[in-house]
Amino acid sequence: MGILAAVKQNRRTDQILQIVSYAGQGIPSFITVLFLLFFAQLTTHYPLPMIYYIIRSRSDGKYLTARVDDDTSGYLLLFKEDFDAMSYLNAHAADLANRLTVEPLASAQIGSLLKRWGFAGVGIVNDSLLPEIEFLQHI
Q: Which residues cross the membrane (predicted)?
């Protein structure tokens, strides 16, 4: 095929052979990646990192927390989707929304963030409008 393309340069045959060669090189790796992602979601052997969303102050960098008592350290509020965090802000702190920002946080970073800021644990917000929060204590 290479000889045929070299002899008939810039013709329909050459263009068809170029497309076939690009597809032959690119499609197998693309399909392999799709299969890997599909099976990674089905099994626990290759877990994909979970991304949570947090609300942070633009002025001083502090995180939005839930406190049980004033004397204890708070629970860092985590949202599963960015729109959940935004609807939480709009429902419960609409007047402060322009002073706060929503940031992504990988699940692998949560432990170090809890240690650095001294949080008691995390509060995973399941429903941002009620709000329904599941509290997990950091050990």
A: 30-55
Same domain for 94 and 27 = no
Q: 59-111: per-residue pLDDT in tens? A: 999 999 998 877 778 999 999 999 999 999 999 989 998 999 999 999 889 99
Specify whether the CB–CB gap between 83 and 130 falls below 8 A. Answer: no
Give dist(CA 21, CA 36) in Å, integer: 24
In whole angstroms, give the CA distance from residue 61 to residue 64: 10
Query: Does residue 58 sit in the same domain as residue 38?
Result: no
Taking residue 123's Cβ as centre, other Cβ atoms within 10 Å add up to 21
Domain span holding position 60: 51-137
Shared-domain flag, residues 62 and 126: yes
Please give the Cα distance from 114 to 78 (Å, whole number).
12
